[in-house]
Sequence to fold (159 residues):
Amino acid sequence: MRNLILEINSSKLACNVAMDDVARNVFAAFLELEGNDTLKTLCSLVKKWRPLFLNYYKSSEESLAAKSPAQRKVEIELKRKCQIQMLLAIEDKYEKEANSFGPKVAKLVHFLYNDADVLDEEAILEWAKTIAEESPLKGIMEPIVNWLQEDEEESDEEE
Fold:
């Protein structure tokens, strides 16, 4: 996985590609891999590719602890934007293959959030606001969005 990260980063620099484009394209390419036709195999591949996803979509506690507060804030914001790009790649795949991919979308997003710990609640909620009202994807994502909002409200009440 380290070699793949190195290759992606080298190509990013050589081609002058923005980090958010890299984030979107990494997950878009992942979604096109062979063997992603069932939710079970898709989730299995997410587990296998998790180190790559963590590199582009999450900041480790150790990495953040070594930075100044200003640097931490910048990195957290960058990773949130990258997570939104991941979600936009999922949305793109849905738009191309609604019938076959649609039933997997909410479960995949939930898996990336809850099990793989690659997505943060804030990124999912922010992305969900951008989905067109008339899009069937809005309805597909509604249960997980409601669940996250309820969870957020409960957390706010506890504080």
Notes: The chain has a mean pLDDT of 93. The two ends are 40 Å apart (CA to CA). The chain is about 80% helix and 0% strand. The domain at 2-158 is CATH 1.25.40.180 (Serine Threonine Protein Phosphatase 5, Tetratricopeptide repeat).
